[in-house]
């Protein structure tokens, strides 16, 4: 069996999944529990997702978030160092450096985010990064085409 491809999940994917059990982000979590993909995240991303879910969504959504994390059992990697973060100062907003740096440092195949404003920019495209940055919808379309 081939090794699972690593998928780095941004907080936005967890927030969307908590808000809708039947949406694309929830399906991403299901895909990452399968045979071909595994989820990777940092503690900071999980805390950011939790904070936003508490602030913006229902108690039900928060409970769904906790249950999904337990079922997903993602690989939780160490946060990037300031040195790692500084490599990305010129290509992404400072508040999102930790997401990009973490995804690149752990050598994932995909970074899944709904934050198109900061991650789907010309500067990022020009950087020729060794990962594919996708929205949940784009990732699901990719998976469907690959017939995983």
Q: Give me the CATH fold name.
A: Rossmann fold
Principal-axis shape: globular
Question: Structural class of the helices, strands and pairings?
Answer: alpha/beta
The CATH superfamily appears as 5'-nuclease
Mean pLDDT: 94
Low-confidence stretches: none
Binned, the helix content reads 40-55%
Give the assembly state of these chains: single chain
From the alpha carbons, calculate the radius of gyration and give it in angstroms.
15 Å
Question: Spatial order of the strands in the main sheet?
Answer: 3-2-1-4-5
Number of helices: 9
Care to count the β-strands?
A: 5
Taking the sheet with the most strands, its summary is:
5 strands, parallel
- Cα end-to-end separation: 13 Å
């Amino acid at each position: 069996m081939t090794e699972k491809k690593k998928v780095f999940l941004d907080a936005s994917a967890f927030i969307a999944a908590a808000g809708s059990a039947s949406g694309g982000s929830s399906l991403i979590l299901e895909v990452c529990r399968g045979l071909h993909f595994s989820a990777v995240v940092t503690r900071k991303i999980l805390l950011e997702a939790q904070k936003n879910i508490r602030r913006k969504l229902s108690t039900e959504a928060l409970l769904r978030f906790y249950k999904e994390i337990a079922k997903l059992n993602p690989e939780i990697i160490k946060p990037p160092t300031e040195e790692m973060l500084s490599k990305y100062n010129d290509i992404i907003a400072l508040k999102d450096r930790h997401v990009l740096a973490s995804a690149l440092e752990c050598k994932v195949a995909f970074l899944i985010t709904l934050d198109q404003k900061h991650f789907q920019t010309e500067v990022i495209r020009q950087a020729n990064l060794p990962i594919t940055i996708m929205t949940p919808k784009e990732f699901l379309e990719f998976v469907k085409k690959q017939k995983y």
